[in-house]
Amino acid sequence: RQEPRLYIRKMVISVPAYFRDVQKLKTKEAAVLAIGKLHDTDFGGRIGIDVVGRQLEEIEDVCLIPEPSAAFVTYMARGGYQAVKKGQQVLVFDLGAGTLDITVGTATVVKDPITREDRYTLDVQMTHGNTALGGRDMDQLIVEYLLTELKRRDVPVDVRMMGQVRDRAEKAKI
């Protein structure tokens, strides 16, 4: 008996907010190639992945969404909409290792005309990324602050202690 196949015709891919058009196009092309390669592997055969074609033009739709916008949609889908009053803005920070991306969006409650249930429409108002400010930069600022405090308190800092300071600086952001 042959297992049912999963045909991929549409994709949604999250990309960094700072990606330019060329980078987005290359991402789309890479996604189609990756799925084609997965199909050719034993794993792809086991999970039943198939692709309509191996050219970007043969995929019906490839939607790119900036990563912080994807985080906004995920937050709202996981119940964040309950905490958002009608029309209230939401600011989402996506703090990567080397970048800081943000999205500002709103959620609006709309009554479904048939079911009379509340539906939420999401509107991303802006997305922006900064490649010169990210998690590593913030880690470094926290490390510098902690080292200043340790020095002020006359606490000696050796190599092992420095590793602990860096580790705690990363965890402080969570």
Question: In short, what is this structure?
Answer:
It contains five helices and seven strands. With 174 residues, the protein is α/β, with parallel strands linked by helices.
Characterise the protein shown here.
With 174 residues, this protein is of the alpha/beta class. Helices cover 39% and strands 29% of the residues. The protein is built from five helices and seven strands; from the N terminus they run ββααββαβββαα. A three-stranded antiparallel sheet has the order 5-6-7. A two-stranded parallel ribbon has the order 1-3. The chain has a two-stranded parallel ribbon with strand order 2-4. Helix 4 (135-152) crosses helix 5. The longest helix is centred in the first third of the chain and has 19 residues, at 21-39. The chain is extended and about 70 Å long. The model is unreliable at 44-48 and 51-57 (pLDDT under 50).
Please tag this protein with its features:
single chain
